[in-house]
Description:
Layout: E1 2-3, E2 7-8, H1 11-16, H2 22-25, E3 27-29, H3 31-35, E4 46-47, E5 49-57, E6 62-68, E7 74-77, E8 83-86, E9 88-91, E10 95-96, E11 107-114, H4 117-128, E12 135-143, E13 146-153, E14 156-161, E15 182-190, E16 192-194, E17 199-201, E18 204-205, E19 207-210, H5 222-235, E20 247-248, H6 270-279, E21 284-287, H7 294-301, E22 306-309, H8 315-319, E23 321-324, E24 331-334, H9 337-348, E25 354-359, H10 366-378, E26 380-383, E27 386-389, E28 394-399, H11 414-417, E29 421-424, H12 429-442, H13 459-468, H14 470-473, H15 486-499, H16 506-509, H17 511-522, H18 528-532, H19 545-555, H20 563-571, H21 575-586, H22 590-601
Parallel strand pairs: 3-18, 21-28, 21-29, 22-25, 25-28
Antiparallel strand pairs: 1-10, 2-9, 3-4, 5-6, 6-7, 8-19, 9-17, 11-15, 12-13, 12-20, 13-14, 14-15, 16-17, 23-24, 26-27
Helix pairs in contact: 6-15, 19-21
Amino acid sequence: xxxxxxxxxxxxxxxxxxxxxxxxxxxxxxxxxxxxxxxxxxxxxxxxxxxxxxxxxxxxxxxxxxxxxxxxxxxxxxxxxxxxxxxxxxxxxxxxxxxxxxxxxxxxxxxxxxxxxxxxxxxxxxxxxxxxxxxxxxxxxxxxxxxxxxxxxxxxxxxxxxxxxxxxxxxxxxxxxxxxxxxxxxxxxxxxxxxxxxxxxxxxxxxxxxxxxxxxxxxxxxxxxxxxxxxxxxxxxxxxxxxxxxxxxxxxxxxxxxxxxxxxxxxxxxxxxxxxxxxxxxxxxxxxxxxxxxxxxxxxxxxxxxxxxxxxxxxxxxxxxxxxxxxxxxxxxxxxxxxxxxxxxxxxxxxxxxxxxxxxxxxxxxxxxxxxxxxxxxxxxxxxxxxxxxxxxxxxxxxxxxxxxxxxxxxxxxxxxxxxxxxxxxxxxxxxxxxxxxxxxxxxxxxxxxxxxxxxxxxxxxxxxxxxxxxxxxxxxxxxxxxxxxxxxxxxxxxxxxxxxxxxxxxxxxxxxxxxxxxxxxxxxxxxxxxxxxxxxxxxxxxxxxxxxxxxxxxxxxxxxxxxxxxxxxxxxxxxxxxxxxxxxxxxxxxxxxxxxxxxxxxxxxxxxxxxx
Length: 613
């Protein structure tokens, strides 16, 4: 079947129909109409909707437009920007192929009701994870002038629509947040037939719309143009993609193909950050409330770990005992039990990492804490001049209670706090069990790869600090969450090489700065390597001034050998960007300044950018 013409109900029709009693004039306001700004009664769910009848007011010199308010009362409005609901009407004669014996089952498919509760939370998570469970059905829907893909997951068809309004109560009782997407279920809406007048009309207010910005009557109105334009195409199924075939919404690796560093921006759990730090040989401090399962996380990584519990371990039990040989009068050290056991494990399995877990470290006495921190940070145990070195394939993790959770806990000083990666365990047991079972199924092991040469600071970090300067190099310390400083950026660089996922940085520089770093990395800037390898031409650079400016700053890090080629590329950006490039590349370097001067001296129209800015 095909719909040829769509309209709305007339005022005379609403007034003269006996089937419309007082309640019948009131119509339920769909969730789509609500987030479109239609006025509705929160108690009953009834909303305002347009009808056809414009009148000229000779006194005001204006046309008024009619609408039915949510109380079932005929009303008029002179405000052309007013938005009301749309309740469609279709004549039997305007539907090709209509079987009039089936008019009581005639229906249209359209998004109207919001998916809420647990369903919405699951879909949120699937989008966050860029799950392949979400597919495009091949159909599209026109909603208030914009085209949206129809998506499907678990057999539910829906569209993802941005919500611009705050505190709108949806049909399931939930309240909307501004700028948070709403998932509207594509459902079959059975239209109400009027056999006598050979007319269908919708049982709900389908969406919200202005009537006409120029106060024209319905045949020439904006609303009529939309109803018989994109909206009609939507109902007739004329909007399709990929010839109406299903396709994945998130293709494999599509999340890493659009950023210059090749990062994977997928969400990463605290347990995964912990594993990245261990594999990168970075000291970790594990935070969490008592009973949150900190030990269970570590046991899942190494079920044969060496555990030192400072809640029940004496000072001598951790540091060992210094004694004197009565024959030789020389001092010697009785090695602590945990050190002997750890060394035996590391020697027995040299290709595996073995964990030394220092639990409740914040509850230890200050003198023992000092020794424990040296073990954690430097893998060295010192006692009265004796020094014991931990094996290379041993890794140390510390954990402790927060000061607010334990009277015996001592807060970490800022220098010590700054030398750890900080992992905060707040996940539920359900989430942890899923992770633990996944590890068991995948058969992961902490393999010791041997010592590697220290890599240079990751280029993404260099570019980010180059662009943002001191405000991101160092951030304020609050004693609770990680802050940025040069040492933290160095540790973050190691973890970034290991994981290739910037989400891991929250263990080093905090959540807010990590999210800002991720936004920066997603900007599609031009890199030095892309220019040198001829992977991009000047014509392919977006003409967005901010992208060109950021790219110019990043390209100014080029070395002397490749300077000429990169500078020629930047020339295509324009004179202003070339001046910025010259300044950033040559500032405080007299040899580079003279090189640029020689480059520009032959052309009187060019000049060196001032270095007194």
